[in-house]
Amino acid sequence: MSSIATITIRPGAVERRAADAKDDGTLARQRIEPASAAGQGVPRWLRRLSGPILLVLLWHVASQTGVLPGEVLAGPSTVIGSAAKLIGTGELQDAMVISLGRALAGLAIGGSIGVALAVLAGLFRLGEDFVDATMQMLRTVPNVALIPLLIIWFGIGEAPKIALIALGTAFPLYLNVYAGIRNVDSTLIEAGRTLGLSRAAMIGHVVLPGALPNALVGLRYSLGIAWLALVFGEQINATAGIGYLMANAREMFQTDVIVVCLVVYALLGLGVDFTVRTLEKVFLAWRPAFSGT
């Protein structure tokens, strides 16, 4: 029976521990263990939760001891009670659906425009000459400064809110997709030409897959900006949504409802970011990446 050896790889050194080693020269089977996996007793998900939990505990202690007065910021227990009331009446769920719909609609419009322009500018020099300078100029204009114009152009309905989100999400996707296309390894391009790939095949099998990592990074940036733009957009005469709940709570000095809305914004953003991270694991499984030590 062959013995089993465990090898733990560490930077600069290799430690081998053999169990029941035999002296007859029989080759032992070996099990490789990464050094990053050794000695991790606490699950990673628990370590990731420790920061938010500690913050909430500090918040609770400050509220109970009077260091943080209720009129300045309601305590966690009050916030949880307000959230339960809003969930019980259905207001919170309806607001979440409406706000999420606005954010996704704006992202779909702005993202489609940003990606299309990035592909045009990245693949063709003529497209770059017509598109890139204009996009670089417009991206420096603060989106919030455009709210008066959007109201004049689209009124005070849903259109200016979605347009504001679309403007905010178009530029990160444009910049990252454009950079991804232009930074594709030239050796891959030369290899494709050597294999006789057509221009369409080169774009479909080499250029666009090579730009995908940058595109997903741009999508994560765009999602973050979408929530920021949504906060401002829902202040434009909104009659529903999370921003509408926040505006009403601000008028009534209800800090507990404001905190509930902020937490909902954060959770929605965390949820869509988790979705993009999952897409990265699926579509970029071919690319080894450093995951920390």
Automatic annotation (TrEMBL):
Key word Cell inner membrane present: no
Domain of life: Bacteria
Residue ranges of domain ABC transmembrane type-1 in the record: 96-276
GO cellular component, one term: plasma membrane
Pfam families: BPD_transp_1 (PF00528)
Compartment(s) of residence: Cell membrane
PROSITE patterns: ABC_TM1
Record InterPro entries: MetI-like (IPR000515), MetI-like_sf (IPR035906)
BP GO annotations: alkanesulfonate transmembrane transport
Transmembrane segments: 103-126, 138-156, 162-179, 200-219, 225-245, 257-276
Keywords: Cell membrane, Membrane, Transmembrane, Transmembrane helix, Transport
Membrane-related topology note: Multi-pass membrane protein
Family: Belongs to the binding-protein-dependent transport system permease family.
PANTHER family the record matches: ALIPHATIC SULFONATES TRANSPORT PERMEASE PROTEIN SSUC-RELATED, ALKANE SULFONATE ABC TRANSPORTER-RELATED, MEMBRANE SUBUNIT
Function comment: Probably part of an ABC transporter complex. Probably responsible for the translocation of the substrate across the membrane.
Protein's name according to its UniProt entry: Sulfonate transport system permease protein
Source organism of this protein record: Neomesorhizobium albiziae
